[in-house]
C-alpha cells in the first residue's frame, strides 16, 4: 500500500491510500439500507452522547451530529461488528479514503458547505423537487433539500455511513423525514442498475466525488441514467486532488468527450484551495 496526500493544502489531515494495482477491485454491490433504530445500541449511543452542530442557512437550520464523536463511539466500542467496519480499517491507518473499501463519507468535506451556500444564496428552487444526494456522507445537502420541501434519496458507498451518520442526521432533523427518504449503499454502477426503474431526479447534487478519475464513467452513468431530461446536476469539488489525480478540468474533459451533457462553472472561490461548482444539464 502507498499512502498519498489527498490535497497538498490539507496534507496534515487528509490522506488516501491507493494500491499500485487498480484493476481487480471488488466494488461493493448496491443495497437499500433500512432504519433499525430500536435494536441498535450504537444508534442510541449516538443520540445520547454526540454533540449536535447547527448549520444556519438563511432561515433554515440544519442539525447534524459531530462525525468525530460518532467515530469515537466506533473507536471505543467493544462490539466485534463495529471493530470490523471498513471505516475502522481506514481509521487505523489514519486514512480518509481507501479505494473501494472506504470512500470518505464519515468526514464532512468543505465543498459540501460551498454547495449549500450556493443553493441558498442563488435561491435555486427546491420545493417539491425530487433530489439525489450522491456520495452524501453526512447528508447535509440532502437535509437542506428536505428542509426546503424536497423528497430525497441518499447514496453513500459505505453502509455504516448511511446507517450511523446520514440516517441519524435525518432523524435528528425530523423523525418523519426517514419515512419519505431512501438510502442506498454500494458502488455507483451497481446503484444505477438497482434504481434505474425508480422515478428520475430533478436534481443530482454531489460534493467531493470526482477525486478518482477511474470512477468518471460510473458518475457519468449515474447522471445519464437517473436525471430527468430537464434536470440539473451540481458538482462541487476542489480544482485538483493532489495524490489521487482527479480534477475539475479532467472531469469537464470527460463530459465533453461523452457528448451527452453540457457543463459550466457556476461558482468558484477566490481564496484558499481552489474550489468550484459545475452546473451540468443534458446537451439537447
Ligand atoms: C470524499 S467523500 C465526500 C462526502 C460528502 N459528499 C462531503 O462532501 O462531505 C466521497 C463520497 O463519494 C462516495 N463515493 C466515492 N466513490 C464511490 C463509488 N465508486 N461508488 C459509490 N459512492 C462513491 C462515497 O460514499 C463518499 O461519501
Draw up the topology in text.
Elements: E1 2-5, E2 15-18, E3 31-32, H1 41-49, E4 52-57, E5 60-65, H2 67-76, H3 80-83, H4 86-92, E6 97-98, H5 110-121, E7 130-134, H6 140-147, E8 151-156, H7 159-173, H8 177-180, E9 182-185, H9 188-195, E10 201-207, H10 216-226, E11 227-238, H11 248-258, E12 261-268, E13 275-282
Parallel strand pairs: 2-6, 7-8, 7-10, 8-9, 10-11
Antiparallel strand pairs: 1-2, 3-9, 4-5, 11-13, 12-13
Helix pairs in contact: 1-2, 1-7, 9-10
S-adenosylmethionine (SAM) binds at residues 103-105, 108-109, 111-112, 135-137, 156-158, 187-188, 207-209, 215, 218.
Indicate the mean pLDDT. Answer: 91
Q: Looking across the biggest beta sheet, what order are the strands in?
A: 3-9-8-7-10-11-13-12
How does the overall form come out from the CA principal axes?
Answer: globular
**Fraction in helix:** 25-40%
Distinct ligand kinds: S-adenosylmethionine
In words, what does this structure look like?
- The protein is of the alpha/beta class and 284 residues long.
- It has a domain at 107-282: Vaccinia Virus protein VP39 (Rossmann fold, 3-Layer(aba) Sandwich).
- Helix content is 35%, strand content 26%.
- The chain has 11 helices and 13 strands.
- It starts with a strand and ends with a strand.
- Bound molecules: S-adenosylmethionine.
In short:
Residues 1-20 are annotated as: Disordered. The chain is an alpha/beta fold and 284 residues long.
Amino acid at each position: 500500500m502507498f499512502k498519498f496526500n489527498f490535497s497538498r493544502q490539507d496534507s496534515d489531515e487528509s490522506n488516501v491510500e491507493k494500491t499500485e494495482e487498480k484493476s481487480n477491485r471488488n466494488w461493493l454491490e448496491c443495497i437499500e439500507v433500512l432504519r433499525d433504530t430500536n435494536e441498535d445500541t450504537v444508534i442510541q449511543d449516538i443520540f445520547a452522547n454526540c454533540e449536535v452542530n447547527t448549520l444556519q442557512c438563511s432561515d433554515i437550520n440544519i442539525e447534524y451530529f459531530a462525525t468525530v464523536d460518532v467515530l469515537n463511539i466506533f473507536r471505543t466500542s467493544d462490539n466485534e461488528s463495529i471493530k470490523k467496519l471498513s471505516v475502522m480499517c481506514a481509521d487505523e491507518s489514519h486514512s480518509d479514503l481507501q479505494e473501494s473499501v472506504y470512500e470518505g463519507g464519515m468526514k464532512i468535506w468543505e465543498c459540501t458547505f460551498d454547495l449549500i451556500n450556493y443553493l441558498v444564496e442563488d435561491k435555486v428552487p427546491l420545493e417539491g423537487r425530487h433530489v439525489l444526494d450522491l456520495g452524501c456522507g453526512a447528508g447535509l445537502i440532502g437535509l437542506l433539500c428536505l428542509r426546503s420541501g424536497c423528497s430525497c434519496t441518499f447514496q453513500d458507498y459505505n453502509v455504516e455511513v448511511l446507517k450511523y451518520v446520514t440516517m441519524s442526521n435525518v432523524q435528528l432533523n425530523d423523525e418523519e423525514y426517514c419515512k419519505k427518504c431512501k438510502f442506498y449503499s454500494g458502488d455507483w454502477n451497481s446503484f444505477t442498475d438497482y434504481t434505474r426503474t425508480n422515478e428520475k431526479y430533478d436534481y443530482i447534487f454531489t460534493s467531493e466525488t470526482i477525486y478518482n478519475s477511474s470512477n468518471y464513467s460510473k458518475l457519468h452513468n449515474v447522471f445519464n441514467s437517473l436525471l430527468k431530461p430537464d434536470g440539473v446536476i451540481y458538482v462541487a469539488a476542489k480544482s485538483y486532488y493532489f495524490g489521487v489525480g482527479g480534477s475539475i478540468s479532467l472531469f469537464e474533459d470527460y463530459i465533453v468527450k461523452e457528448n451527452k451533457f453540457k457543463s459550466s462553472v457556476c461558482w468558484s472561490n477566490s481564496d484558499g484551495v481552489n474550489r468550484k461548482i459545475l452546473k451540468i444539464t443534458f446537451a439537447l
